[in-house]
Amino acid sequence: MGKKKHLSLTAADSLSAPTPKTPIAKVLALPGQYLCALEIPVSSVEENLAKTLKSMPQWKEEGDKEEKEKSDSIVMLAQLPPKYRNVIWVKRGSYVMVDLNEQLTDKVCGEIMGVLLPNHIKEFKKNSLWPSGFGDNTQKATEPSPDSDDDLVANTNRVVHYDSESDEDSDDE
């Protein structure tokens, strides 16, 4: 078994139940350099750790001019560890487990332990370990319905011919 395959299997299987030091977070953006902007509900973090994280400068997007003060969530930066950088892929809207035990820099507050798969999310919800700050709309974000075409982008490589019946009606008169 290759190194990448072994790492990806251990990353997916080694996720344990969330704790106040290792909460579940939602990926808001990927600013680059293996960093992820995460949103963590305050209810899933210890009180003194939440105060510490709130006092730190919170991450904001470049184009985000208005201040959005959310008292029920913390927005912070976390990095992907070097051993997972070409193995685990993180995208916006997905859920990850974050290790908040060590602060890496003054802006980066933790490390990503792994990406939660839909079966992890179902298991956490079934065992009532899912944070209440994310609500029940997470299933829509993680599991798209197979018959919905909302995610499909129109193919711009082909010319679309529309048969207009109004032109045919005017020719018949």
Automatic annotation (TrEMBL):
Regions crossing the membrane: none
Presence of keyword Transferase: no
All copies of domain S1-like, residue ranges: 73-113
Tagged with keyword Membrane: no
Keyword list, A-Z: RNA-binding
Pfam families per the UniProt record, alphabetical: eIF-1a
GO molecular function: RNA binding; translation initiation factor activity
InterPro entries: EIF1AD (IPR039294), NA-bd_OB-fold (IPR012340), RNA-binding_domain_S1_IF1 (IPR006196), TIF_eIF-1A (IPR001253)
GO CC, one annotated term: nucleus
Residue span of region Disordered: 132-173
Gene3D superfamilies (UniProt xref): Nucleic acid-binding proteins (2.40.50.140)
Family: Belongs to the EIF1AD family.
Record PANTHER family: RNA-BINDING PROTEIN EIF1AD-RELATED (PTHR21641:SF0), TRANSLATION INITIATION FACTOR-RELATED (PTHR21641)
Protein name (Swiss-Prot/TrEMBL): RNA-binding protein eif1ad
Organism: Mycoemilia scoparia
